[in-house]
Amino acid sequence: MAFWDDVVKGAGDLANGTVKAVGNGFNATTKAVGDVAGSAGKEIDKVVNGAKGKFDAKPEEVAMQVLEQVSKLPVVKVDRNQFLMDKFGKGLSQDEVGKLLADGPVNIVSKDKLDKAAKACIMDNVLLSSGASVLAGLPGGIAMAVTIPADVAQYYAMALKLAQELGYIYGFQYLWSEKDKLTEEAQNTLLLYLGVMLGVSGTGALLRAGGMAIGKQALKSIPQKALTKTLYYPILKKVLKVFGISLTKGTFAKGVSKVLPVVSGVISGGITFATMKPMGENLQKELSKMIDYNEEQYEKDVKSIRKEAEVIEDEE
Q: Which residue windows are transmembrane per the record (predicted)?
């Protein structure tokens, strides 16, 4: 019952947040839905059509396909420079702006302010996603095939958007190539973001110590020791498995909420609020540990990664 208590609470908090959002311009949520239901409609169809008949496949295969397709949605691509300027650019000198865009805000903003900005970012995205989920859950909302409903595709698109923004706050570099494509390294970073959000053991340590698209300042004092594939691959594989399983569970939970059409929108939004907020908080806490990251912490993380890789191999 604890989960559904959280859903009810989330729905109540969402209602309050939505009222506040209306006063501040709820058209932002409408625009987000438009991005998913309008200009991104063809891309979402690819997620659905590409996954049809695939849920009898391994969870890892389903997860990888969904990750690849959802990452193509326009809402997922966060403009790092624009985001950082919006969050931290006010009042900075030209020299400070240069440092902000080159290395992120870590060297010019205190840890307390970074954490505060990250927590505000979580709430903004959760309310935005929950509001969009409410609209999608109402009769006449976005119609999708049963395999991956629009609100599930939307949910993970918004989760990846939130994850990138948190990463940029704590010093990660821009993930997308000049052609707006994800490199394998960047794709692994997104996968680790999801792993941390979903509570997969070892992902926080690997995100910090793996050097995957990490901010330059984070490892300045640490010898560059590339982690071998035998260490990080088992953890990435485990993330895919957990993500794949969560996709099917998430689809089921969303489907249950639509049995009662009158309240389906509120329940759908409540589920989004009750699940995405703690996911964002999980990632924020792990990324915050990167501030003043040192060799002792690095060695501790590497030890944790080795231990987790051994546990995973023993389970297989």
A: 190-210
CA 115 from chain centre, in angstroms, equals 17
At 182, is the secondary structure helix, strand, or coil? strand
pLDDT digits (tens, 9 = 90+) for 93-113: 999 999 999 989 998 999 999
Helices 184-197, 229-257: crossing angle, 10 deg rounding: 60
Q: Is-contact 269 127, C-beta < 8 A?
A: no
Q: How far apart are CA 110 and CA 118, in angstroms?
A: 12
Task: Give the residue ranges of the chain where pLDDT is below 70.
Answer: 1-57, 130-151, 178, 211-228, 248-273, 316
pLDDT tens track for 152-184: 777 888 899 999 999 999 999 888 876 777 778
Spatial distance between the Cα atoms of 217 and 231, rounded to a whole number of angstroms:
24
**How much is the CA Rg of the chain, to the nearest whole Å?**
19
Instruction: Give the three-state DSSP class for 176.
Output: strand
> How far is it, in rounded angstroms, from Cα 154 to Cα 255?
14
Answer for the pair 75, 40: CB distance below 8 angstroms, yes or no: yes
Per-residue HEC secondary structure of 46-102 comes to: HHHHHHCCCCCCCHHHHHHHHHHHHCCCHHHCCCHHHHHHHHHCCCCCHHHHHHHHH
Contact 136, 268 (CB under 8 A): yes
Residue 125 domain boundaries: 2-315
Long-range CB contacts (within 8 A, 24+) of 217-222? 217/103, 217/104, 217/106, 217/107, 217/171, 218/106, 218/171, 218/290, 218/293, 219/293, 219/298, 221/294, 221/295, 222/293, 222/294, 222/295, 222/298
**Gap between the Cα atoms of 257 and 292, Å rounded:** 44
